[in-house]
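Researcher: Here's my situation. A collaborator sent me these components and asked whether they could plausibly form a single complex. I don't have experimental data yet, so a predicted model of the whole assembly would be a useful starting point for our discussion.
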Amino acid sequence: VTEVATMIRSCADTSEWNPDWDDVLRRAGQSRVLSRRIAAIAVVAAAGAVLLLPGIGVGGRLKDLIAGTSRPGIALHTDLVLRNGSRAGTLSASLVPGKLYWALALEGARSARSARVVLGYGTPVALCAPCRDGQRGTARTGRRPIWFGPRARVVLETKFGPAEGPLRISRPPRRG
Amino acid sequence: MRFERGASLGDIEAVYRTRFAEFCSVAAAILPDREAGRDAVQDAFAEAVRNRRAFRGDGSPDAWLWRMVVNSALDGRRKRWTSEPHEPEPTTHVTDDDELRAVIQQLPERQRLVVFLRYWADLDYASIADALAIAPGTVAAALHAAHGSIRNSLQEVRT
């Protein structure tokens, strides 16, 4: 048996064979080029989904950052109410270290005499004087601590009298 | 090498690159020429790539791939024989190896395949049994019968 086995082994084809894995993939319909293209398309699609789908939310924030419709930082908001209880407008703001980005929306009038943030201590921070509906601006806050404590409020001087509202952290709007 | 359930492309490629010469030698022995043998191996691995998720992981991955190669070569031979008459390649000088190959080619198919897988692919009995979907005892019996036939045939040729 050993002799026969040795003879059989010795007559095996020992010539050179060159493998061609790309040919295997082509025959299987899965060429490397195709696989890479599919992978590239998948990556682009995933990136697009992350950026654009409102449910994921990154796209909206990125767009806001680029377009400047909102700012990074702590989002603050207040409704400005006259003493008679009617609304005079709203102030939306974003607090980052050293700066307050703000936007004013007036109701019932196109302008107001002035707007300021009163902290309950120290000098109030002036926002605008006079002010108009839709006005935006940046106020330097320096090293003032806590801008949105219970005593922090916005005072808007209008022709109907002062309108005030507490400056509070606003809940982020739900997207999608 | 051991695949888990569902073979990965990398696993299959590793076996292909490691044992390509053995796969081709066996396929070329089943088929009438080298090129056809190589073609059968390429087709077999293409099928393995397409069906890699169907590998259940309960047997030897080598045997799974060998089964594909052997089946691909047998399919290739059947197609050739039905489409064109088989004529052996002409040889001008007959060596002992040629004689032995001719004797092996005369063996019944199962014995021939067992001989190829045992001696040219160096598979153990269990892997041959897996590859050919037969019992290990049948492998031993077929190999024993093949040895006897080869020994007798060579004695007849040389006397």
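Model: Some features of this prediction you could bring to your collaborator: Chain A has a mean pLDDT of 79. Chain A touches chain B at residues 1, 4-5, 7-17, 19-21, 23-30 (CB under 8 Å).
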